[in-house]
Structure prediction request, 371 residues.
Amino acid sequence: MNKNKMDVKIETKKGSMDEWPEPIVRVQSLAESNLSSLPDRYIKPASLRPTTTEDAPAAANIPIIDLEGLFSEEGLSDDVIMARISDACRGWGFFQVVNHGVKPELMDAARENWREFFHLPVNAKETYSNSPRTYEGYGSRLGVEKGASLDWSDYYFLHLLPHHLKDFNKWPSFPPTIREVIDEYGEELVKLSGRIMRVLSTNLGLKEDKFQEAFGGENIGACLRVNYYPKCPRPELALGLSPHSDPGGMTILLPDDQVFGLQVRKDDTWITVKPHPHAFIVNIGDQIQILSNSTYKSVEHRVIVNSNKERVSLAFFYNPKSDIPIQPLQELVSTHNPPLYPPMTFDQYRLFIRTQGPQGKSHVESHISPR
Prediction:
C-alpha cells in the first residue's frame, strides 16, 4: 500500500476517534465471572492462535547483554558490549539488559504498585476510563474498528513527557505510593533510554547524539502502558496482545517476574522470552527502523496468556517529538542505498495503530516509498 492509500485509510477513521465504537467490556470482569468458554470476540483466527504456530526450542531466548562498564567516568565505551548491542539491533530487534543502572527495588515497586492497582474492583478503576483520542487512562482495547477481534488484556496508559502532557490527576491515586514510584521510575528510564540511544547512533558510525537530535533533542515524548493479563479459560485460542511492531522509537519493557508471556518472531518462529531477573527487555520501534533506513529492525511480537496465572508488565515508550518529520538520516543514504521511507511525523504515524489496532508489521511496510 502506498502512502496516499494509507492516508485515506486513516482519514476514514478520524471521525470515530472521540469514543469507542461499542461498550467497553473489562477483561478482568470476564475473568472473574468464572467463564468455562471464551467469548467469540476473543477467539483468534486459527492462523494466529499460539498452538498453530511452530514454536522455537525451549532453550531459545533473545540476547542478554550486561551493560556494566559500558560508560566509564571518562565516557569511554566497551567495544564488546557495543558490538553485542549492534548485532542484537540488526539481527533480532530485541535484547535484554542487566546492570543497567536502575535499582532493582524501584523496578519491583513499580510492578507491584500497578499489580495492586489492577487488583482493585473494576468499578473503582472506571473513573480513569480512557478514550481512543489519546488512550490516556484505563483501557481494554486498541483500535476503533467495530466488531474487531479483541485481545485478552486491560491496560493503563499515561504520559511522562513532554511535561505539558504529564498530568498527575490522570494517574491513579491508589495505592498511595503509585504516583511517586512511577514518577521516579519514568525519570530513570528516560536516562537509560538516552544512554542506549547514544550507543545506537555510535554503532552506525554517527555522532553519538545524532538519533537524539532526530527525535527532537530534549523535547522527546515518553509514555507508559501497563498491561494486565488476567487468567484466561482458553489460552490456546486467545492472545493477550496481537502480533505487532511498536510504532514508536524504542520500548523498554519490565516483564512479569513470575510468568512468561512475551513472544518475539524470529525467522518465522515464535520465541518465548525468558526474562532474566531484574533485566529490562529493549526493542527497536518503527521510528528507529525508519531513521536507520532499515539497518535496525523493529520486530513483530505478541503476548500469550495463561489459564492459571495473571501477568503484569510495564512497557515504557521513548518516542520522537510528535510533530517532527521522521525519515532516514542523510548520512545513511546514498545512490546505492536510497531512502526507503518518505517523511512522516510520529503524530501521523501512530494514528494507524490507534485506529486499526495491532496489525503485525503492516504499517511500517506500507510506509516504504514506492519505486
The CA atoms of residues 323 and 366 lie 20 Å apart. The longest helix spans residues 178-202.
